[in-house]
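Marked as duplicate of an earlier ticket. Keeping the data here for the record.
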Amino acid sequence: MKVFVATKNSGKLAEMRAIFAGSVLELETYDRYTDVDETADDYIGNARLKARALYEQLQEAGIAAAVLADDSGLEVDALGGRPGVLSARYAGKNVSWHERRQHLLRELENVSNDQRGGAFMCTFVLIMSNGTEIDAVGTLPGMIAPKEHGDSGFGYDPIFIPKGENRTFGEFSFDEKNAVSHRRRAADNLLAKLSSKE
């Protein structure tokens, strides 16, 4: 099944293509996709906004196809769940990812290791060509490192240590991360829901 992805984030798109490789979904991009403002107060709401926007853009172009969107974020226990849905805009809209990570680490400067728990969250929304919507969630618990390690991945990867690991995602290889990530967990849940509807 050909599916158009509602993202302009090249890192996220590469991960999604790797994660869904070999599945029934063949991920494509739509060059004229126009981003929407992520104004929802939860991940599923933002993913739905993006998916519905792309679905409508394809309909207007006369293309009948399925679309897939995700929204993800980092939730830190000691910060009451922040940055959460604001992860991509934390510390300001036009700052770099390095600046966002440093801002978050400064907020945790006096927080002990046993209080640095958190989780990566991901929600997928798939809209079938007939308009049917399917959503799925993936959660990966872990902790926030005291400083950045590694330069793999993107976003908050260099400061997130998955539960049971002693390396950050920034120190994981591309394939290692995709085997265990929150995005992988959400994708597996989505594919399970999709197969149950066939």
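See parent ticket for discussion. Helices lie at 10-20, 43-60, 97-107, 174-180, 182-196.
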